[in-house]
Amino acid sequence: MYEQSEPPSALRDLGFCEFFSQGLDEHIGAPGRIVRDGRDLWHVVCEHGKFVAALSGKFRQSAKARIQQPTVGDWVLVETKGADDRALIHRLLPRRTVIARKVPGENMETQAVAANVDTIFIVNALDGGRNFNLRRIERYLALARESGAAASLVLNKSDLCGNPQHYADELHNLAPQIPVYITCAITGLGVDALRATLAPGQTFVMIGPSGVGKSALVNQLLGDEIKETGEVRARDKRGRHTTTYRELLRLPDGALIIDTPGLREIQLWGREENLAETFPDVEQLATECRFADCRHEQEPGCAVRAAVERGHLTARRLDNYLQLRAELEGLIERQLRHRQRVERRHRRILQHDVDKQDAPRKDKWE
Ligand SMILES: Nc1nc2c(ncn2[C@@H]2O[C@H](COP(=O)(O)OP(=O)(O)OP(=O)(O)O)[C@@H](O)[C@H]2O)c(=O)[nH]1
Ligand SMILES: [Mg+2]
Ligand SMILES: [Zn+2]
Known about the structure:
The structure is a single chain. Strand 1 and strand 2 form a beta hairpin. This protein is of the alpha/beta class. It has 13 helices and 13 strands. It has a six-stranded mixed β-sheet, with helices on both faces. It has a five-stranded mixed beta barrel with strand order 1-2-3-5-4. The protein folds into three domains: 9-92, CATH 2.40.50.140; 98-262, Rossmann fold (3-Layer(aba) Sandwich), CATH 3.40.50; 272-348, Probable gtpase engc, domain 3 (Ribonucleotide Reductase Protein R1, domain 1), CATH 1.10.40.50. The structure holds guanosine-5'-triphosphate, magnesium ion and zinc ion. Residues 156-157, 159-160, 184-186, 210-216, 229-232, 239, 241-243, 261-262 line the site of guanosine-5'-triphosphate (GTP).
């Protein structure tokens, strides 16, 4: 079909490069890139067009760990079926870079957020509230470092801040080698500087908390309001997770950009111990509470609340602490329920013939 040393321009436009040639095998399938991921179905673009793809039975069997499953930006080998817009994913090609987040719990699974990214835009916002937090930005930088991709910091919503340069300077002190961009996705201020970094065929990703304007920036870069953006709750400046799936888009100049839903705090921090690590001041104060199991809510003799009243701890910090704790507790509960569901399903499958269970799926895709 084509020379392996020279991929067709359709693939190059999608970001295909020499690195991925090693994994090609035309007996198994054609190379395609995941442009959108879902739970069981992935959107894949290859030379023959765009397909909705499922994992082949064999792949599903061999890729049990979540990190082994395709994510947006991945290159895969797909088998397409003529006019049908359905395809089967047979294999994942080795990743150049991968952004992985921890799914905390007893066995700390990792899940790929995006793969084969060249540069990560870590977006934060200057509208006050929870959206500018140096410790959290440090976590994002660590995530970027582990991924193997380069990182840039973006301070969006500069229109809502009296002195954006002050925050840019703080970031520069935090990470002197990382470029910092000040932007406003409403007026387009600073977007040209971002655009200037977007080389054709390279892949970029927007990550950051919900509501900071990742999709709004992508819209500016697209030059067209095609992505949905959401209103931010006024009270605490937390977004509402408008973007619900990860998606790879091609910009007019030929760069590829992945928009992601905001990572939840919990997915960023990963471990339960991080509550103590992140809030050593609160944990220290808590040792003075009257009750050892004080929740710092309504209990009498709460040293943490007392510190807030005396002005030794900001109310916002306690708020953040309670928020993260609530997320961690919710997560543990969800995981427990998930484990129970999985166990129930396993029991059911043991009772039935496994092949019969698989049959309807096969009919659909093969
Ligand atoms: N004032 C101001 N508002 C902005 C700016 N950028 C985005 N917004 C608004 O902030 C809200 C959230 O923007 P989104 O682009 O949906 O945020 P997001 O980061 O994609 O959020 P998720 O998809 O939930 O992760 C929208 O109402 C935007 O119009 C900005 O630079 N200035
Ligand atoms: Mg969004
Ligand atoms: Zn207390």
